[in-house]
Amino acid sequence: MKLGFIGAGEMGGAIIRGLLKSGWPKEDIAASVHSQASAERLCAQYGIGAGTDNMQTAKQADVILIAVKPGVVSQVLAEIQPLGAKTVICMALGWTLEKLQAALPGWPVVRIMPNTPLALGEGVTLFAFGESVSAAERQAAESIFARLGKTIELPEALFDAGTAVSGSGPAFVYAFIDALAQAGVKQGLSDEQSLTLALQTVVGAAKMVEHEHIPPAELAQKVATPGGCTAAGMNVLKTTGMDEALAKTIAATVAKAQEFGKK
Ligand SMILES: NC(=O)c1ccc[n+]([C@@H]2O[C@H](COP(=O)([O-])OP(=O)(O)OC[C@H]3O[C@@H](n4cnc5c(N)ncnc54)[C@H](OP(=O)(O)O)[C@@H]3O)[C@@H](O)[C@H]2O)c1
Fold it and tell me: Ligand 1 within 6 A of 93 CB?
């Protein structure tokens, strides 16, 4: 399957890195971007074919992946529209199936929300499929992202909530790791020691949640022996409102995603 990326910055680049890492042949990946300098960087960095001609990229692809900023999507879809129907996968925030179908009538359109850990094969991709997508096209689209982590089909009504938790989620987790590490530094650890400890703890704890099949709240209780030092810390975490801060963070992200959807 030949993939044509239109846009290959932060997110498109992460997907390309993940696909190459998973063994996808570089000859079967092409990209078009805005500037010649970015195209040259992509050729040099990944060994893929890259240029600035969106139509050319779309023409040669079996599946077209739209990875430009939301404000550029209509222009790009108008450019490729004369080509005639082929599968288009769009990852732009706020680009609903309805909008995609209006821009590309009759085309099989797929809306996704990936996240950057896809680059390491540890991503999550949310999927919603347009009416014209056949079972084979669905399977083909999902199989690209299944190589890069988990894929989850969601009703579109839940896409903004999913976007907040998994699309934007890595930023919140990075902020948590940073805060945990900085708190360790305040207690005398060096920057390096504290970041190593914080990072490996988050990696290890995430794996425990994944492998133990015990809800995370229950795992937290198991670690926090009543009267012990972890329990003392957990008390402060609860009273200072981590749950509330995260609930507000996700709600603000959802609200912003909804705004993009209305544009
Ligand atoms: N970043 C994330 O974590 C994330 C997560 C989920 C979804 N997304 C979605 O992914 C999309 C891309 O976001 P991003 O963060 O990757 O943006 P980005 O880093 O700014 O990359 C945008 C890419 O689009 C290219 N581009 C701009 N205008 C173009 C045009 N007219 N034709 C072809 N290519 C063009 C840019 O090329 P130049 O380099 O030459 O300017 C660049 O390669 C967005 O719609 C966003 O909603 C992002």
Answer: yes
Does residue 78 have its Cβ closer than 6 Å to ligand 1?
Answer: no
φ, ψ (nearest 5 deg) of residue 93 = -55, 130
Give the CATH H-level superfamily of domain 169-262: ProC C-terminal domain-like (1.10.3730.10)
Query: Please, what CATH class does the domain formed by 3-166 belong to?
Result: alpha beta
Record the tokens describing residue 127, joined without a space: 């999927």
Q: Is the CB of 168 under 6 A from ligand 1?
A: no
DSSP conformation letters of 178-244: HHHHHHHHHTT--HHHHHHHHHHHHHHHHHHHHHH---HHHHHHHHS-TTSHHHHHHHHHHHTTHHH
Express each pLDDT in 84-104 by its tens digit.
899 999 999 999 999 999 999
For atom 28 of ligand 1, the residue with the nearest CA is 34
H helices of the chain, in order, are 10-21, 36-46, 54-60, 73-80, 97-103, 135-146, 159-162, 169-186, 191-212, 216-223, 229-239, 242-262
pTM here is 0.92
Instruction: Note the pLDDT tens digit of each residue in 207-227.
Output: 999 999 999 999 999 989 899
Give the span between the Cα atoms of 222 and 216, in whole angstroms.
Answer: 10
Indicate the domain borders of the chain: 3-166, 169-262
**Residue 116 CA, ligand 1 centroid: distance in Å:** 12
